[in-house]
Amino acid sequence: MAADSERQVVLITGCSEGGIGHALAVAFAAEGCLVAATSRSLGSMRGLESDPRFFLQELDVVSDESVGRALESVMARFGRIDVLVNNAGVHLVAPLAEAPMPAVEHLFNTNVYGPLRLIQAVVPNMVTRRKGKIVNVGSVTALAPGPWAGAYSAAKAALHAMTDTLRLELKPFGISVINVVPGGIRSNFGEHSMANYSRMPEWKLYKPYEASIRARTAQSQGPRATPAAELAKKTVSVVLKRNPPAWFSYGHLSTIFAIFYHLPLCLRDFVYRKIYKI
Ligand SMILES: NC(=O)c1ccc[n+]([C@@H]2O[C@H](COP(=O)([O-])OP(=O)(O)OC[C@H]3O[C@@H](n4cnc5c(N)ncnc54)[C@H](OP(=O)(O)O)[C@@H]3O)[C@@H](O)[C@H]2O)c1
């Protein structure tokens, strides 16, 4: 086993059991990394508690204070962060014209400003060491945004755009930035999305589409969804490369979304209107 000073220190957000972050934590640890696994509550990572490869911390990405506290503990423990993985994210299913603004703001705060908050906190140390990797977990939905999850797609598109800029801006400091773009991955995402949806108001304009809108909450979790562990293993092998690629997309429907991205908009709209009966 390599000395701790030679092992990669990886900080991951949103590591609750059953999700992609948790699977990434396990996969990075399996490759010999020291993993600072974080989530909003330690209780959601209980399965990692007794394993010395994991340093568990509470971290809420919407709170400057929580981010500051968690990073202080990680720096005190390891003295560095080699890889930051911005994985934490929430879903929101609601037609854009009626989506409650507080829910949209919370979504952007979690999925866009959250990663940026972490990046701004971690980058100074990486710059000093002229070394580091930042992984942002995007989504294929940003490639071809369809109905009912418009705010989520917009937030992921914003994250993709920030990732592209950061890759260029951080290159002079020796920091690589990687966009990991999952397709449909089995996790708690659908369950969390449904719980969020149950807090939505009754639709006014979109009442006739209620069944189609509700079904969107579970769309990523069909029987053919890719196991999170499979995505995690592939992602880790890509991220740990000496020269990692700028883009890594993997999982159920990722090829279809890549094709959708290149389709003329009239064709893409035609297909979506058929699928969503809109
Ligand atoms: N599953 C898919 O098909 C899919 C596809 C494309 C992209 N993604 C992206 O993959 C990432 C992981 O999602 P997942 O599929 O693993 O879903 P998940 O099982 O719902 O996990 C989401 C994680 O984010 C955490 N989280 C939410 N708000 C947070 C906050 N304010 N601070 C810190 N952590 C927070 C959750 O914590 P709690 O347990 O405390 O809620 C949970 O640990 C997300 O960015 C998602 O958008 C997923």
From TrEMBL:
One example GO MF annotation: oxidoreductase activity
GO cellular component: endoplasmic reticulum
Keyword presence, Oxidoreductase: yes
Pfam families xrefs: adh_short
CDD domains xrefs: 17beta-HSD-like_SDR_c
Highest taxon in the source lineage: Eukaryota
Domain Ketoreductase: 8-188
UniProt keyword terms in alphabetical order: Oxidoreductase
Annotated coiled-coil segments of the chain: none
InterPro entries found in the cross-reference section: KR_dom (IPR057326), NAD(P)-bd_dom_sf (IPR036291), Sc_DH/Rdtase_CS (IPR020904), SDR_fam (IPR002347)
Keyword Oxidoreductase assigned: yes
Family classification: Belongs to the short-chain dehydrogenases/reductases (SDR) family.
Name of this protein: Short-chain dehydrogenase cctT-like
Taxonomic path: Eukaryota, Viridiplantae, Streptophyta, Embryophyta, Tracheophyta
